[in-house]
Amino acid sequence: MKKKYLFFISQDYSFPILRPLQEVILKRGDEIKWFLYGDEITMDFLHADEERLLEIEDVIDYNPDAVFVPGNVVPSFIPGLKVTNLHGLPSNKFTKGGQHYHFIIRGMFDLYCTYGPKCTKKFKELAEEYGYFHVEETGWPKLDPLFPLSEIKDSKRKAIFFASTFSPKYTKAKILYPLLYEMMKKYDFDWYLTLHPKMDSETVELYKSIDLPNVKFVESTEVIEYFKKSDLMLCDTSSIISEYLTQLKPVITFQTQKEEPFIINVQDIDKLENKILSVLDNLDINKKNIENSVKEFHPYRDGKSSERVLDAVEKMLDGKNLPRKKKPLNLIRNFKLRKELGYWKF
After folding, report:
1. Same domain? 162 vs 38
2. pTM, whole model, 2 decimals?
3. Is 346 part of any domain?
4. What is the pLDDT along the chain (346 residues), one digit of tens a residue?
5. Residue 179: which domain range?
6. Cα separations in angstroms, 182 against 133, 177, 188, 189, 301
7. Whether 235 and 323 share a structural domain
8. Which of 74, 58, 102 is nearest to 9 (CA)?
9. Which of 3, 69, 297, 303 sits at 20 to 30 Å (Cα–Cα) from 287?
10. Are residues 28 and 59 in the same domain?
């Protein structure tokens, strides 16, 4: 019997996470619809051939078998198995109390689809502790189009992918702008620039206004294409670093929160330009450390993570791997979601 699936999203970064999964769903002959809500999502990013439900009542009537959410919350009043693909690979971001943002459990999901051994181990410990969700290691659907990896043709013209997070605590986009702009004019490199969808509009406009033939601003929906075209990444503190590293290409960070062996961190802005130049001349400089790290956080290089996600969902829909407890009522979170979505039927 044909299964009905729903993508429940409120952020632009959700599109590239879910589209590879959509492709697999359709290939299996199942049905998929999108529900977009909130004022932080760009409705125009939805493709003409992608089906959108406009009202929350339409979602309830659709009665999905499973709901996929690359975010933190989903209403319990929407039918179906609640599945999180998580919205990014683990980064070094922590709450003021020292809790890792990636592992905050909000009691809203039945299934967590994880990326690799390091992430899976922690989530399985949490699943044992809480008892109301299942964990399956699948890899991340967003990265499926990245594989199989292809070699960049040897060229004298190098390309740099620059990315920055939105958090005022972690972003270095404004600090780096003068240096990067001068380098863009000075060197015969291509530059691909992307900023987190939640980045403040002033900084976004600053980078989008760069009018140089070797510079392209890349929307969050198309980063994978430009991962492939670039030789190295320059970043601050963001989960996009891990995404890029799965290609086994080097990443230089500027004043990142936590130094790791798989990244090349620079604290002094006066030394950054020379570091970029030296790494471009030796792109294999940190490859062994990168390989060791990628084995832990995303070992899958077959481009079939979406298939594994759907397999895990189908097993639970068939009554396998069901949690031993029911999810908490989450009255406050569900009340806020009812208010946001304007849905008061019980």
Report:
1. no
2. 0.90
3. no
4. 899 999 999 999 999 999 999 999 999 999 999 999 999 999 999 999 999 999 999 999 999 999 999 989 999 999 999 999 888 786 666 666 666 667 889 999 999 999 999 899 999 999 999 999 999 999 999 999 999 887 655 567 899 999 999 999 899 999 999 999 999 999 999 999 999 888 999 999 999 999 999 999 999 889 999 999 999 999 999 889 999 999 999 999 999 988 999 999 999 999 999 999 999 999 999 999 999 999 999 999 999 999 999 999 999 999 999 999 999 999 999 999 999 999 999 8
5. 149-297
6. 50, 9, 12, 12, 37
7. no
8. 74
9. 303
10. yes
Domain-embedded: residue 260: yes
Place of tokens 């790290």: 293
Residue 80 shares a structural domain with residue 39: yes
Check whether residue 249 and residue 334 sit in a common domain: no
Q: Specify whether 139 is located in the same domain as 155.
A: no
The whole-angstrom separation of Cα 93 and Cα 96 is 10
Measured at the CA of 172, the angle between CA 237 and CA 177, to 5 degrees, comes to 140
139: its two tokens: 């890899």
